[in-house]
Amino acid sequence: DLSIDVTKHHKPENYRDKFAYWTVQALKFPTHLFFQRRHMCHAMLLQTVAAVPGMVGGMLLHCKSLRKFEHSGGWIKALLEEAENERMHLMTFIELARPQWYERALVFAVQGVFFNAYFLAYLASPKLAHRIVGYLEEEAVNSYTEFLKDLENGSFENAPAPAIAIDYWRMPPDSTLRDVVVVIRADEAHHRDINHYASDIQCQGHELKDAPAPVGYH
After folding, report:
1. In a 3-state reduction of DSSP, which class is residue 28?
2. ∠129-93-113 over CA atoms, to 5°?
3. DSSP secondary structure string for all residues of 93-143
4. What class does this enzyme belong to in the EC scheme (predicted)?
5. Average pLDDT for residues 108-115, to the nearest whole number?
6. pTM score, two decimals?
């Protein structure tokens, strides 16, 4: 849905939100310093990390559902859909770029640390974990906006879209990299809204299963 507002930002309203926001800001600067305007490699790192929260959250909700013999309100499916969508972003960028060995090593290390940190964070406070992801996705939207600017001003080649992207997003055969970045940015904005919504539900004292999950986005 390309009508999603990509400019929307969640304003930190309490100490938990502020902690989540500044955690993401602290994590942002080293990656921007390392990748600078190398958008492809930056995107691959983003997607390797971004595919973790949905899988971790979906897995833990799945186990909770089994333990408590209760439905999840569709949230298991929604979070696993998010993880799969992020994985397809990564598969798309792999078709377009060939990372160097040190970039692969960085991705491997970051994913290993992030998976375990997010797993523990979700066990401790799902509402905080979802808020962190909401802010991470806001930064992803900003990164893809910068990518689009460089494509539009000619700083980056607007190559043909790879077949995997055309098939997955059902795009026209003559689609370009710019078209791919536009739909990926819309996906990230959707994930942003989903995770802020999930955190809001729990901040109001409810469980996720009490509110129907938005599923079937793709």
Report:
1. helix
2. 35
3. HHHH----HHHHHHHHHHHHHHHHHHHHHHHH-HHHHHHHHHHHHHHHHHH
4. oxidoreductase
5. 85
6. 0.88
**pLDDT of 53 above 60:** yes
Query: Residue 45: what residue type?
Result: L
- Rg of the chain over CA atoms, in angstroms? 17
Q: Would you state the pLDDT for residue 134?
A: 95
In terms of phi and psi (left: phi > 0; alpha: psi -120 to 50; beta: otherwise), the region of 205 is left
Amino acid identity of residue 106, one-letter, is: L
Domain 19-210 part of CATH 3.30.365.10: no
86 is an annotated ligand-binding site residue: yes
9 marked as binding residue? no
Bigger pLDDT: 168 vs 7: 168
| 188 annotated to a ligand binding site | yes
Rounded CA-CA distance 7/145 in Å is 10
Share the mean pLDDT of the chain.
87
